Amino acid sequence: MVWSNALVRPSGAQMKHLKSLYESLEWWKLVPRLNSIDSNITLGDSQDVLVKSDTDNLFVIYFPNTTVSFNASLTGLTNGEKYAAKWFNPRTGVEQNLPNDLYVNNQKILLPVRPSQDDWFIILNKKHKPVEFHVRDFGALPSSKNVRLALEATVKAASKVNGPAEILFEPNMVYRISLPDKLADQSKHAWLIKNATNLTINGQGATLLVTNPEIGAISTEKSSHITVKNFMIDYDPLPYAQGIITAVNPSKYWFDLKVDEGFMEPDKPCFKRAMAKWGLTIRGRPNGRKIYGPTPVFSERWEKNGNRVWRFYPLKTETGYTDILLSANLKPGERYVHMARNWSQAVAAKNCDHILWESITILSSPGLAFFPHITSYHTIRDCHVKVKEGRIFSTNADGIHMRGSRGHVLIERCSFEGMADDGINLHSSALSIQKQPAPNQVLVKKHTFSVRPGDELVLVRSASAKILNKTNVKEVQDKGANWLITLDQSLPKLDTGSGFDSSDNLYNLSEMASPFVIRNCQFNDYRGRGILVSTHNGLIENNAFNLNEGWGVVLSYESVRWAEGPIAKNITIRNNKFRAYKERPQPAVFAHIITRDGATVNSRPFSDIKIESNRFYEYGGPVIMLNDACDVSINNNQIFCSKKAAARRSSEYAAVVLKNCENVKIDKLKVENTCKKQYAVVDIDSKCASGKSISVNSMKTNVAKTCKPIMDQRIKK
């Protein structure tokens, strides 16, 4: 077979995953480890398990594709050593960490059984005992007014170790930390760690209490193999004003807020300097749950009107919102939070690789809770955003906002509540095309991303969301506020402009948090979406979505406001539970596009979407709504809606709605909902592809007699 034909076969496309694996290792140190595998059966040549190693520190072990089941042991090791292990899937690039370390006994390790009969890699890393550094020895004490300098001294000492080091706090103590006023702008963190390697920061249950409400808590930059674990992050003062609405005057367009004792009043500078001046209601429900907003109340100004009472004058319109005061439906006696929201993040990492955030709980933040930015091989495990007892709110922005990651993302066993915005957001950012100096050159505005030679880019016509083509970067030249990028092929004539809302855009497929896995997470009461996906190659499984607004997984592309992308592709959503509480919930799984000037989308750029074995509860409205998608499998899903939940809905709906879709297969869908407002189980609109491109098979329903199993609007009456 000639090489050009081999490239288009599945194995050709999978080679990038093998390359990515080796780039994550010091591959030049690996040598073959012959005769190091013992097996309980005799393996043929095509079944041999292959091993390479860096002495006894690192093992890369390859299991070939075989239907034969066998046990294998890695031999020639030192008793008492232990290894961290992870599976690597060479077909998808997804990693899976083993929950327990592997120990050497009788000079060998019994290797686990492959996850499937396909070929797999298992990677073993020896765990070396780190050198310990206690922060108390450098002057960081719970009684200290500010431990910043002591923590910096601890990191400096740990960085001199030739090997792993661990920084330890006193268990369950509170440490106050901040920056001097002259350094404390919104882009800074109280504790910044740069150029570190093989470092573990172990809070042992300690709380970092940030005493400036405008800065982040902890950030690592340009670092490798970093673990931050066992911390609680909080603020004093808190970066918001919490209180009760005492009066509302719709005609004069104001409302009064009495701020609770113990919270900042909004005359503090952080509120004036906020990047977004808005707040939201927090309403209780009979079942003890809370409704956050969802309408944001943007205020142009506010003034004092009594003892801890402030009069707010909302804007009448803001991007995406009209008649805000009427839409928010504010009432005296309701709880309300006005935020000093900015760009800061409680925990961040930038330009780092092999990062683990584990067992970190964030109680408040002026902006995002967790911000991985241009990281790779990043695991976020057992981390939580929580509302502290006595409060009604947590962070001013998203739970996890992952921008421009270079891949291999794992988020597991995390939970989210009380935030002002989305639970998890994965994306890259638009490279706005300012000029096209030559057919194979573009001048793009610098933004929150990087571009490197060899990166793969995708070109999107923002006016219509049409994917034009893919290309690779040959050269990047720094041009001040812009980059001049030379590509490996010529592009068509492009729309250029001053920003992503007026130009065609490129998205970096090498820097989009791909592949990713999100599993076993809990999404509870807050304002916003569960998981917002603008990337490729992801698995979302075994999560629980308990959101008042309803929407759990949103595949989104909008070229006019945030320009987060690329357009989602190859996403699997399986074995999740979705439960809605609102009168008119948004769809649990939603794919939609917002184009420049509201132009019609004629293509179907969302592709390779699998929605499998999920359960949906109490959605008195559409459960799955897909716009502009192709190659979709909706298989073995179950939808349950009680009469009480169904009665909340005042307008008609279908359970599954397909708009402008193609090649969609719906199998084994079970629906129990006797509400007469449900006019159809599946609604296929007239723009969907004709013929057998949309198929519905083996559907089981318990619905009202007036509900049609399928409403196919492609069929002319």
- CATH homology group of the largest domain: Single-stranded right-handed beta-helix, Pectin lyase-like
| The CATH class of the largest domain | Mainly Beta
Major β-sheet, in short? 36 strands, mixed
Based on Cα principal axes, name the global outline. Answer: globular
How many domains, in number, for the residues? 5
What is the fold-level CATH name, i.e. the topology of the largest domain? Pectate Lyase C-like
Give me the secondary-structure category: mainly beta
Query: In the CATH classification, which architecture of the largest domain applies?
Result: 3 Solenoid
Which parts are unreliable, with pLDDT below 50 for 5 consecutive residues or more? none
Radius of gyration: 27 Å
Mean pLDDT: 92
Bin the helical content: under 10%
Please state roughly what percent of the residues sit in beta strands, choosing from under 5%, 5-15%, 15-25%, 25-35%, 35-45% or over 45%.
Answer: over 45%
Count of distinct strands = 61
Tally of individual helices: 6
**What is the distance, rounded to the nearest whole angstrom, between the alpha carbons of the first and last residues?**
53 Å
